[in-house]
Amino acid sequence: MTINQSERQLTEDTEAVPLPTLIEQLRDIDTALIANSIGGLTQEPEENWYMSSEIQSVTPTLGPTVGVAMTCEMDTSSPGGEPGNLDGYWEQLEQMHQANEPIVWVVKAVGSRPKHECILGDGMAKMLYAAGCIGVVTDGGVRDVAGLVSTSFAAYSCGTTIHHCPLRVRRIGTPVSIGGITISSGDLIHANQEGVIRIPSDCYPSILESAHRNAAFERKAHGMLRRTDLSSAQKRERLAALLQAHSVSDCVSDK
């Protein structure tokens, strides 16, 4: 995968926003709010862009993690004596060095013993971080969590696994299915301690504006919803008015 920053410009309102600038601004917003803000901006259904609870942060003090996906398939669990092969890993490290935006390494575990997969530890994390990769999303395990945190390398995985068989990179740069959704190289990933989403590309021009509207709505709505002097019917009526005023939708609304 080659990422050419000069050719990737996003538009918010009438002003062109370079992708690194968008990413920096998205880091100030939690993942759940971004997920709430996607509704109405894309033709993709929700089930296509949020990962299942199988994928959890093992570095919850880090994040939000926002970056461009670089995909890989790796076998770290299959027995049988086949030697390791990390040629694809070294190739991707070079691609990360050449990228102009932060990378999230998205690794599909493809070994024969899924619960024995260990995709990386803090040694690989240090190499990845030095190359411009800020975190990993994988349906395998990871280890050396304290070292990951001290490196500021975020990890979203099925948990921790203490060891691995020889590491074998099978494919790089192809779409992978993780947490019930498909991720392709070049996709924009947003993640924090509550989970991982892929921001659909047709949301890029308006996602910041939508997130700001949703944040303003939530500040007013949550204060109102806490009140004990209002009936459920009154809250429903006021919630509908707030939704209309802020041009947003909500999971408990009639819209």
Kindly name the structural category.
Answer: alpha/beta
Query: In CATH terms, what is the architecture of the largest domain?
Result: 3-Layer(bba) Sandwich
End-to-end separation in angstroms reads 40 Å
- In CATH, the topology of the largest domain is named Glucose Oxidase, domain 1
Q: Which regions have little confidence, pLDDT < 50, spanning 5+ residues?
A: 1-14
Which homologous superfamily in CATH is the superfamily of the largest domain? Answer: Ribonuclease E inhibitor RraA/RraA-like
Total E-strand runs: 14
Order of helical and strand elements: EEHHEEHEEHEEHEEEEEEHH
Work out the count of structural domains. Answer: 2
What general form does the structure show? elongated
CATH first level of the largest domain: which class?
Alpha Beta
Helix content: 25-40%
DSSP summary: helix tally:
7
Q: Summarize the biggest pleated sheet.
A: 8 strands, mixed
What report would you give on this structure?
The chain contains 7 helices and 14 strands. It has 255 residues and is α/β, with parallel strands linked by helices. It folds into 2 domains: 17-203, 3-Layer(bba) Sandwich (Glucose Oxidase, domain 1), CATH 3.50.30; 207-246, no CATH class. The strands form 4 sheets. Strands 3, 4, 5, 7, 9, 10, 13 and 14 form an 8-stranded mixed beta sheet that branches. A two-stranded antiparallel sheet has the order 1-2. The chain has a two-stranded parallel sheet with strand order 6-8. A hairpin with a 2-residue loop joins strand 11 and strand 12 (181-183). It is elongated, with a radius of gyration of 20 Å. 40% of the residues are buried.
